[in-house]
Amino acid sequence: MAEGLRERKKQETRIALSWAAVRLAVERGYGAVRIEDIAAEAGVSLRTFRNYFDSKADAIAAREVERSLKIAEELRARPADEPLWVAIRAAIEAHFALGEEGHGGRRPPDEQWLKGIRLMMTEPALQGAIMLAYARVGEEMAAAIAERTGITGMYPRLVADVIGAARGVVMAEWMRADPPRSIADLLAEALDQIEAGLPVPE
User: Fold this and answer.
1) What is the pLDDT, as a whole number, of residue 8?
2) pTM of the model
3) Nearest C-alpha neighbor of 129 from the set 25, 10, 11, 28
4) What's the confidence (pLDDT) of residue 102?
């Protein structure tokens, strides 16, 4: 039990640091944020920050990894007799929330927050960490799909990459939509189209 508590506290610290990094980068601009600022915002020491992350880019990218790992865990936990895409949709809808900054993804985002997100996501220094995060996320999703279906080969990876592509398209559309749209609505629309086999819209 003590080991489980320690792991939970470590996970909570990791999430707090990652969220602090995202929030400060959006509010101040990526270049204006130091790792000392992130540690202070999360209420931990600089040494503690360095125990979890090598850089502020890694801390920001960890937000996406954490969210996607929860989706993979949820997919594994869904009822075994549930159709694959029904389970995938439920897992994504349960955990693809943006936190308090996005009202859980249920309402359109605040304009100032969205502007900051756009600037942060175009920061060249962040791109490498984001790409590594997406690669890890793809592997975890493929593993969860393989476990759920009992299928090996390229199918689990193909499904995971379709999910990853949908996530990327949804995030891009969320950032440029005018007027702003909720990420929940965009996700539902993307998943509807995938499940329908991506027919040409009429």
Assistant:
1) 84
2) 0.81
3) 25
4) 46
Of 177, 174, 42, 158, residue with least CA distance to 97: 174
Token look-up 């592509």 returns 165
Model pLDDT for residues 18-28, shown as the tens digit of each residue: 989 988 998 89
Q: Given CA atoms 152, 74, 118, 187 in this order, what sign does their dihedral have?
A: positive
Rounded to 5°, the CA angle 74-184-98 comes to: 70
User: Exposed, middle or buried by CB within 10 Å (0-12, 13-18, 19+), for 16?
Assistant: middle
How many CB atoms lie under 10 A from the CB of residue 80?
A: 6
All domains of the chain in start order, with CATH: 58-195 (1.10.357.10)
Helices of type H across 150-176: 155-176
Measured distance CA(182)–CA(157) in Å, rounded: 28
Using only C-alpha atoms, the chain has a radius of gyration, in whole angstroms, of 18
